[in-house]
Model the fold of this input.
Amino acid sequence: MIEDYSEYSAPELVRMLGTRFKDYRLRANMTQKEVAEQSGLSILTIHRFENGSVKNISLCTFLLLLKSVGSINDLNELMPEQPESPYLYNDNHQKAQRVRHKK
Done:
């Protein structure tokens, strides 16, 4: 079953990611200290992320954490490349660089 995350607030999603990250860390058989050493982050940052006391985490920090437990390649599942779309091309057959709405 695919869950709809659109109703969650950003802090709720961060809390959920922290809980999931802890599972990834444990499956990688790593301690928080080992993740801290591997990622360059503090043990306190990792602890707070995993226990849900952090309401915000930078993308850079999250990527470092994924790398540290060997899950960086899971990004392709999070945001896979999209196939080419004819809607991305304008009337001159040039690829659109941005979206503009007519007034």
Summary: The mean pLDDT is 89. The chain has five helices and no strands. The CA atoms of residues 32 and 44 lie 9 Å apart.
